C-alpha cells in the first residue's frame, strides 16, 4: 500500500499604500428611490487584490464621505447611492483618521444602473504620486510577488499531477475487480491475468511519465521521487526504482523537518523490491527502517512485508516477518494465517495414523487466526487443516452450512 501526499505553497502579497489628508468623514444612508449601484475591486500597487478597508463616495472633493462600503478580503466592494457625480475614496483598515489612500474623480452613479468601477492603484497616475523610496519598495515587492506566483503556479501543476497519480494508484488496486467485471465469470485465468497486467502497465506508465516530467521541474521534492519509484517498481525497472527511492530518502532526510511518512514510504518501497527479488536481509533491513522512521505506520509496513514473502512462497521469511508484525499489532488475523502457512510446510505425516502432524507453533497460529477471524476468508481452509491433523478447532469457528 502506498501513501499519497500533497504539496502546498502559500502566497502572501503586501504593498505599501500612501495616506493622503482627508477631512472628517460622515457616513450617510442613501434614500430608497432614485439610487444606482456601484461595485468593483480594489487593486494595490503590485497588481494584487487589496482586502479590507472601505470605499466611499464624496460629493465635495473628499471633504465629506457620504456613502461607504466595506472591502472584503478579496478586494471586492459593492453598494448603492443616489444618482449623481462623486469622488471615489479608498481608505485602508489602518489608514489614520483624516487620511485617504487613493481617490478617483468623476464617478457617475445612474439610477437603476450597477456601475463597475475598480480602484486600481497599479495605474501610472497613482504610481507617479509615490516617493522614490516607495517606488523602489514597490519594484522589490513586484519582483518577489512574481517569483512567488511562479512558485505557486508550479505547485498547482504538481498537485494536479499528484491527484492523477492518486487515481492511477486506486485504479491499480482495483484492476483485478475491474478486469473480472469486463471479462465475465467465465473468463480464463490467463485472460484475466493478461487484462489485469494491461491495466496496471498503462497506469504505471502514466505515473512514470508524469513524475519524470515533475521531478525535472522540482527536483528537490521527495514526494515526486517516491511516486516515480513506485511506477518504476511496477514496470519491473527495479534498479532504477531502487536508485529513485534512495534519492527520495536522501533529499527528505536532509531537510530541517523530515516528513516521517515520506521516508517510511520510500523505505517500504525498497523493501518491496528486495522481498520480491529474494534479497531477504535487504528486505528486512528496509522494512525495519520504514517502521523506525514512521512508527505510526509500522504495523502496515511489517504486515506488507509478511504478505509479500507469503506471495513469494518464502516460508522462513514469511514466518519471521509475521512474528515481527505481530509484535506491533497482535490483532491482525492475516498475520497468523501467514505464519501458519509458513510453518505448515514443516508438517509431517504420522506413519501409523496417516494424520498430519503440525509443528506446535503452527497449530497455535491457526487457532489464533480462527479466534480473530472465525468467518474470515481462510477460516474453512484452516479448520480443515486442523481437523486433518486431529487438532481441536476453535470454538468460535462456525462451519458453513451444508447445501
In which range does the helix fraction lie? 40-55%
Give the SSE string. Answer: EEEEEEEEEEHHHHHHHHHHHEEHH
Name of the top-level CATH class of one domain: Mainly Beta
| Major sheet description | 4 strands, mixed
Task: Give the low-confidence spans.
Answer: 1-30
Number of helices: 13
- Per the CATH scheme, the topology name of one domain is Immunoglobulin-like
**Shape by Cα distribution:** elongated
Fourth-level CATH superfamily of one domain: Carboxypeptidase-like, regulatory domain
Structural class: alpha+beta
Portion in beta strands? 5-15%
Mean pLDDT: 87
Could you describe the 3D structure shown?
Helix content is 51%, strand content 13%. Among the domains are: 20-133, Immunoglobulin-like (Sandwich); 331-403, no CATH class. It is built from 13 helices and twelve strands. It has helices at residues 124-127, 132-173, 175-183, 189-217, 222-234, 238-253, 260-276, 280-293, 298-311, 315-328, 333-343, 360-372, 379-388, and strands spanning 20-21, 35-43, 54-58, 67-70, 76-82, 84-91, 99-100, 102-109, 114-116, 119-120, 348-349, 356-357.
Please outline the helices and strands.
Layout: E1 20-21, E2 35-43, E3 54-58, E4 67-70, E5 76-82, E6 84-91, E7 99-100, E8 102-109, E9 114-116, E10 119-120, H1 124-127, H2 132-173, H3 175-183, H4 189-217, H5 222-234, H6 238-253, H7 260-276, H8 280-293, H9 298-311, H10 315-328, H11 333-343, E11 348-349, E12 356-357, H12 360-372, H13 379-388
Helix pairs in contact: 2-4, 3-4, 4-5, 5-6, 5-7, 6-7, 7-8, 7-9, 8-9, 9-10, 9-11, 10-11, 11-12, 12-13
Amino acid at each position: 500500500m502506498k501513501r499519497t501526499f500533497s504539496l502546498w505553497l502559500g502566497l502572501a502579497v503586501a504593498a505599501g499604500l500612501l495616506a493622503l489628508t482627508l477631512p472628517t468623514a460622515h457616513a450617510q444612508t442613501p434614500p430608497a428611490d432614485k439610487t444606482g449601484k456601484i461595485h468593483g475591486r480594489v487593486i494595490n500597487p503590485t497588481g494584487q487584490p487589496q482586502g479590507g478597508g472601505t470605499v466611499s463616495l464624496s460629493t465635495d472633493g473628499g471633504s465629506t464621505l457620504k456613502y461607504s462600503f466595506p472591502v472584503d478580503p478579496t478586494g471586492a466592494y459593492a453598494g448603492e447611492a443616489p444618482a449623481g457625480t462623486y469622488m471615489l475614496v479608498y481608505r485602508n483598515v489602518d489608514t489614520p483618521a483624516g487620511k485617504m489612500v487613493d481617490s478617483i474623480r468623476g464617478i457617475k452613479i445612474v439610477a437603476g444602473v450597477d456601475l463597475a468601477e475598480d480602484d486600481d492603484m497599479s495605474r501610472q497616475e497613482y504610481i507617479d504620486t509615490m516617493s522614490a523610496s516607495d517606488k523602489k519598495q514597490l519594484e522589490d515587492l513586484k519582483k518577489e510577488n512574481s517569483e512567488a506566483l511562479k512558485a505557486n503556479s508550479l505547485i498547482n501543476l504538481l498537485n494536479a499531477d499528484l491527484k492523477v497519480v492518486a487515481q492511477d494508484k486506486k485504479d491499480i488496486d482495483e484492476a483485478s475487480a475491474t478486469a473480472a467485471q469486463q471479462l465475465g465469470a467465465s473468463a480464463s485465468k490467463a485472460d484475466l491475468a493478461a487484462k489485469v497486467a494491461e491495466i496496471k502497465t498503462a497506469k504505471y506508465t502514466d505515473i512514470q511519465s508524469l513524475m519524470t516530467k515533475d521531478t525535472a521541474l522540482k527536483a528537490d521534492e521527495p514526494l515526486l521521487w517516491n511516486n516515480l519509484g513506485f511506477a518504476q517498481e511496477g514496470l519491473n525497472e527495479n534498479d532504477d526504482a531502487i536508485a529513485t527511492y534512495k534519492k527520495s530518502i536522501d533529499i527528505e532526510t536532509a531537510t530541517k523537518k523530515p516528513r516521517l511518512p515520506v521516508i517510511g514510504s520510500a523505505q517500504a518501497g525498497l523493501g518491496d523490491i528486495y522481498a520480491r527479488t529474494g534479497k531477504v536481509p535487504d528486505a528486512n533491513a528496509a522494512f525495519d527502517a520504514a517502521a523506525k522512521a514512521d512508527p505510526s505506520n509500522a504495523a502496515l509496513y511489517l504486515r506488507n512485508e509478511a504478505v509479500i514473502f507469503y506471495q513469494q512462497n518464502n516460508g522462513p521469511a514469511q514466518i519471521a516477518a509475521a512474528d515481527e508484525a505481530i509484535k506491533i499489532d497482535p490483532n491482525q488475523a492475516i498475520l497468523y494465517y501467514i505464519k501458519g502457512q509458513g510453518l505448515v510446510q514443516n508438517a509431517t505425516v504420522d506413519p501409523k495414523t496417516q494424520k498430519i502432524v503440525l509443528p506446535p507453533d503452527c497449530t497455535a497460529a491457526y487457532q489464533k487466526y480462527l479466534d480473530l477471524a472465525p468467518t474470515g476468508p481462510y477460516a474453512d481452509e484452516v479448520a480443515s487443516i486442523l481437523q486433518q491433523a486431529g487438532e481441536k478447532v476453535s470454538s468460535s469457528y462456525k462451519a458453513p452450512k451444508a447445501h
